[in-house]
Amino acid sequence: MNVCAKGGGGQRFAKFHNIDLNDKLQLHAAITNPDKLFEVMANEMKNLFGDQVYAPSIPGMTDVRAAEWYGNEIAEKYEICTHCKKGDTSWIERGNIASDIFIKGYAN
What we know:
108 residues, single chain, mainly alpha, 0% strand, 60% helix
């Protein structure tokens, strides 16, 4: 997770858990704690996407493509990193990671 982007996900994560951005040890421990991460992400996903959900009726939208799309959107709208803009390297990478996670079954 990127913490340097002003207003990005890492900074919002720290604020949500009331962690000083300069306290790298506490921040790292929290970011790598799945319970803390999922608590923040559940809240963030509701804020970012609201009622927007994957619909199988969208032509060409498979489960794998939906996972990739959400990975792309999370990079662009949540992480807000330097290369998280649509089509940039981190945007593509996050989409690939999300679809790989879905394919391997870790999302269940």
